[in-house]
């Protein structure tokens, strides 16, 4: 079934202990769409500037991403983000942020997108996420991502959004910040009292878990032996997760449990290259192969 | 089948952010034996001093631990260890160590123990572990634990021991220190080139994995919502793991995979109390209940 993603596209400058990239394709909605594309045709809603490169449009189209919702802002410049990772990967420093076209981003869904049954609100200001969600008529399953910045400066908007979405996806640091609970199980339980019926908590290299009424499933990460760049791993997790859910067409506990493995697979390909250099080449055959391998590792 | 454990007994002084205990029952072999006791009768080999308390002997006997190998050293004093945990539990400071009777610990297996089929060499000097192992005639499955101190000051002894045991169990920090590999999968692979056919890598609150030829199984920790004291969690993991393996009577990949869940269950009870205050009260019914709960959380 149809899957719409509303969020950011970016040009990222990323430095790791081993290598770096300048102005590499990035952004929350971009990573999500590339990760979900083997399962469904993601409908991407986002804004870029006049500096947006034709080759990036071509890559996303070739990947099977629907770009009817890609707005090129006249006179605008694409969002830029810079980051540097410590050798242990656990610490990331943001070196710069240029919002550019995001300063006035007001998502408008193209004709037909309002009928989408699965909605992912990739990381963006929660008021923007709400604006996007409100245009979808009758979703079966809507999920929002967020980040520490919004918990810090737009908590009321985030709380309002949490009343409207079916699920919230966030990482360990964000969960602790949002709830004030250090223990992640208690943090997840507290998120469930704030609106969403379901919470998906990502722990990076330590895996992820999903929790809701009658639902609790936890799994380790796929054992990647060489991480190249963790940027976008969380968005790719969400893309693999939601892509599988949308393809299956329901949000039953059984589907959501299996979807956690698909998210794990997508994230594992993402971190094997800068930008979407690795995951962008991975088709359904690669996804299936690693899904089966992961099944061997995580089930009795 | 029979399970012998050789290692330490201690009186620990532990301080957490919330509470503390002075001279609480501790030690690697003690935690292991208490954790394994619901499955088999652990044969404990270790030394204590004249200050050893009768109540601790009584508790271990009531738990079903065979104490024929407990040596009370005349004029000796029991090993003492002090530790303090940071509020996030991830950092532990050793506040003091008094080796006492451990300075001259030379394990001697009582009559009959030499026929034991399953052997656990709990954390101790690797030369002591070797001395213990050499007295067991024909074990089906032998596992050694270690710690950063021995990697630092007794690496040659540890390397010699690794040639003799079937499996090595260690935590993430120890694995990185022993192999020089930051990535834990690569670290585990490197351990497998150093002698043992199997490696079990514990990651604390992030779970554990087991790896060997044709064997790779990974699982998250049981979701404990209130940790009281993590001391002994790794030894308890090993106890639950080896207790189940010894009860089953084989070390096939299928048994070892299931045993990882039993180890996880034992560790989860251990951290719910100081010393063995919680796990010491848990019988097979508790173990089974939590095993089934964990199965729901980790399998599709």
Topology:
The structure is a homodimer of 300-residue chains.
Chain A: E1 3-6, E2 10-15, E3 20-26, H1 28-36, E4 42-48, H2 54-63, E5 66-72, E6 80-85, E7 92-98, E8 118-121, H3 126-133, E9 141-145, H4 148-153, H5 155-162, E10 167-171, H6 172-179, H7 184-191, E11 198-202, E12 208-212, E13 215-219, H8 233-248, H9 253-270, H10 284-298
Parallel strand pairs in A: 1-4, 1-8, 2-6, 4-5, 8-9, 9-10, 10-11
Antiparallel strand pairs in A: 2-3, 6-7, 11-12, 12-13
Helix pairs in contact in A: 1-8, 3-5, 6-7, 8-9, 9-10
Total beta strands of chain A? 13
| Topology-level CATH name of chain A | UDP-N-acetylmuramoyl-L-alanine:D-glutamate ligase
Percentage of helical residues of chain A? 25-40%
Distance between the termini of chain A: 32 Å
Q: List the chains of the largest interface with their residue counts.
A: A-B, 31 and 31 residues
How would you summarize what this structure contains?
2 copies of one chain form a homodimer. Chain A has about 300 residues and is α/β, with parallel strands linked by helices.
Summary keywords:
UDP-N-acetylmuramoyl-L-alanine:D-glutamate ligase; 300 residues; globular; homodimer; 4-stranded mixed β-sheet; alpha/beta; 9-stranded mixed β-sheet; 10 helices
